[in-house]
Give the backbone structure.
Amino acid sequence: MTRDTFAWLATPAEQAAKRLLGCELVREIDGHTLRVRIVETEAYDQADEASHTYNGRTKRNDAMFKSAGHLYVYFTYGMHHCLNIVCGPDGFGSGVLVRAVEPIEGSDIIEARRGMTGINCTNGPGKICAALGVDRSLSGHDLSTPPIQLVQRPALAPTAITTGPRVGISKAVHELRRFYITGNPYVSKAKRVR
DNA sequence: GAAAAGATCTTCT
DNA sequence: GAAGATCTTTTCC
């Protein structure tokens, strides 16, 4: 079911990743409304060695093969959830990992949920899910309906977007498929070599 | 302030 | 049975 609402996401992952910068996620939880702005993303698709969909469709990544505008949440490292926005055409395994967001509304609730304050609440993939209360039960959710929705915003100027190598992967390390808003403090530091 | 290790569990080989 | 799109705390300059 390709929704016109998310037609702007039915594009190659790289393009969708750039269009998502500056867009907002609205999460309703415990009677509160949390609104955050996406400031950092990474593109993954079926032809990408580092993607979960590279080896075909499985029970876990099934949501990524849905039409654009769905949610894909996976659990990793035994304790962290990561939030992705499905893009591309129906049946093609592509999506955009949301790496960092900036609270616009309900930041006090987010800080209370995280047990800390400042940018450390939402400047990482696992942190976003903890802050917004997202887990695998929401994987495959339609982002045009509550309790979590995606709101489109005007595209950013190309000069406001920086492109770089992705973080935390061991395959296709050289692919430049990470995008973030230039100079935004929530964006994770580029080098994380262990 | 930087670096290393611990925590912890689902999914695929 | 091993690896993984990670985060927090501790330890050591």
About this structure: The first helix of chain A runs from residue 13 to 20. Chain A has a mean pLDDT of 93. The radius of gyration of chain A is 15 Å.
